[in-house]
Amino acid sequence: MELAENKEEVAMSSNTCFERNWILTCNSLQQIKDEYVCVVCQQVASNPHQLVCKEHEEFGDSLIVGESCLKRYLQESNGQCPILQHTGCEYSHSELVQKQIDDLTVRCPRQYQLDSQAVQEKGKIFPKKDEPMTRCSFKGRLQDVNDHLENSCPLELSSCWFKPFGCAMILLKDSEQAHLLSQVQFHLDLVKTHVQTLEKKNQQFKVVILT
Ligand SMILES: [Zn+2]
Ligand SMILES: [Zn+2]
Ligand SMILES: [Zn+2]
Ligand SMILES: [Zn+2]
């Protein structure tokens, strides 16, 4: 089977906020201060900005929002502030919070992805032998994660070839084959459902044309 196409790198985007549960694997709840949490997505803010609008000065200085969340929010809400519905939102990059977040200790995000997937899927459709052999033991500061992923992470992740049909598994390069071999029926069912949906759509389309 040709697997070269349809590969996309499953990577952590450095723009979006950081998953709280990932950070919590190395930090206690107390270590994640309120001012680290993005007011839009409730995860740990990436590129934290502080909202300093005078409309809600009384909320103090803990109104932190991740840059990409803020930009998306302002765009979707026609410039309305995420805290109170007012325009003319004022914000500035918070270097202090940025430094504190950068200093948080974290594990390898790829290993985290694989582990949380293994927990979710355990005992369901994916048998034990699909579990990855290679592990990454990286533990370091959040600001060093991208460097780790680019230069020293032993894990190479990819999506299942049947992703377009609905298989959401994230696979290690060396467990790809095992997954495909052990999940033949599961993948066939996905394709079958997909084809049936297409046929149904096609029929509805014909009915529309004929009537
Ligand atoms: Zn966010
Ligand atoms: Zn505001
Ligand atoms: Zn790693
Ligand atoms: Zn699959």
UniProtKB/TrEMBL annotation:
- Could you tell me which Gene3D superfamilies the record lists for this protein? Zinc/RING finger domain, C3HC4 (zinc finger)
Identify the InterPro entries for this entry. Answer: Znf_RING/FYVE/PHD
Question: Which protein is depicted?
Answer: TRAF-type domain-containing protein
Supply the source organism for this entry.
Answer: Reticulomyxa filosa
